[in-house]
Amino acid sequence: MIRILWARGAVIALALLLNLHPSRLGGQGVPIEWRQVHLGLEVTIRTWADSVQAGIAVDSAFATIARLESILSDWRAT
């Protein structure tokens, strides 16, 4: 039960984090998009920073989503 509550809280926190829209701020430049399929849908992450750190952060975010998917779902694409 605790594991389910933790996973549910993590999904909510991730959804809130990914729902932040830096595009509302002026002068941010052109967004760069990364896309992967997780949880049965295409997940898009946009950054407004063209740097190695942004790539590392996006890789970490997709890894977190994949980890949550492994906890929350037993479905796997074939």
Number of strands: 2
Rg over alpha carbons: 14 Å
> Could you give a short account of the major beta sheet?
2 strands, antiparallel
Please tally the helical runs, counting DSSP H or I stretches of 4 or more residues. 2
Strand percent estimate? 15-25%
Binned, the helix content reads 40-55%
The SSE order reads: HEEH
Write out the strand line-up for the largest beta sheet, numbering strands in chain order. 1-2
Question: How would you sum up this structure in a few lines?
Answer:
This protein is α+β, with helices and mostly antiparallel strands and 78 residues long.
Characterization of this structure:
Helix 1 runs antiparallel to helix 2. The mean pLDDT is 77. A hairpin with a 2-residue loop joins strand 1 and strand 2. With 78 residues, the chain is α+β, with helices and mostly antiparallel strands. Helix content is 49%, strand content 18%. It starts with a helix and ends in a 6-residue tail after the last helix. The radius of gyration is 14 Å and the shape is globular. The chain has 2 helices and 2 strands, in the order αββα.
Any chance you could write out the topology, listing elements then pairs?
Layout: H1 2-18, E1 32-38, E2 41-47, H2 52-72
Antiparallel strand pairs: 1-2
Helix pairs in contact: 1-2
Features of the shown structure:
single chain; about 80 residues; two-stranded antiparallel ribbon; 2 helices; 2 strands; about 20% strand
